[in-house]
Amino acid sequence: MINAKVKEFLDIKGLGDRLTEHSETIDTVEHAAQQIGCTEPEIAKTLSFIVEEKPVIVVMAGDGKVNSSKFKSVFHTKPHMIPRDQVEDITGFQPGGVCPFAVPAGIPIWLDVSMKRFEYVHPAGGNEFTSVKITPGELEEITETQGWCDVCKGWEEEE
User: Fold this and answer.
1) Phi, psi of 5 (to 5 degrees)
2) Strand, helix or coil at 26?
3) Which three-class secondary structure string do you get for 31-49?
4) How far apart are alpha carbons 12 and 94 in whole angstroms?
5) What pTM was computed for the model?
6) Is the pLDDT of residue 158 over 70?
7) pLDDT, tens digit, 9 for 90 and up, residues 46-100
8) CB 124 within 8 A of CB 130
9) With 60 as the cut, is the pLDDT of residue 159 above it?
10) How many Å apart are CA 132 and CA 21, to the nearest integer?
């Protein structure tokens, strides 16, 4: 079950062939890595927060965990995730399928530096059964991101 708006978005950007449909769910980092055949850190998890009463999306490596003080230094507030029962209404995607592609206008997208250490990362493709193989640079280019941020802990840059 391909998400039509994500497929159209990726086709327009010339990356429609990178969308992969999986037979089993990729709703968690662990499930995604198993289905895709990559390491958990290479999964690009897309988290949605409320900042100043507005939604914000942050995409980070699968082994990253939000660091409250780092988040506050960027967004000037503590991290507050969008409640699970409101995610689809706000982002247009169900939990487990939130992605940085075809996001509703007005929702800023930030990319965490934790992804820069990988040649490819694998964000969801609009639902819990699809993923996209993409370089961090391509992700930055096609999502009209606000930029790179550093809001994670739990990962270490390779020397």
Assistant:
1) -70, -35
2) coil
3) HHHHHHCCCHHHEEEEEEE
4) 23
5) 0.94
6) no
7) 999 999 999 999 999 999 999 999 999 999 999 999 999 999 999 999 998 999 9
8) yes
9) no
10) 9
Separation between Cα atoms, residue 85 and residue 82, nearest integer Å = 8
Residue 48 bridge partners (DSSP): 57
With tokens 């250490």, the residue in question is 117
Which uninterrupted H or E stretch holds 140?
A: helix 136-142
Looking at residue 86, its amino acid is Q
Q: What is the pLDDT of residue 96?
A: 87
DSSP 7-23: HHHHHHTT-GGGEEE-S
> Burial, 146: exposed, middle or buried (Cβ in 10 Å; 0-12, 13-18, 19+)?
middle
**How is residue 143 annotated by DSSP?**
T
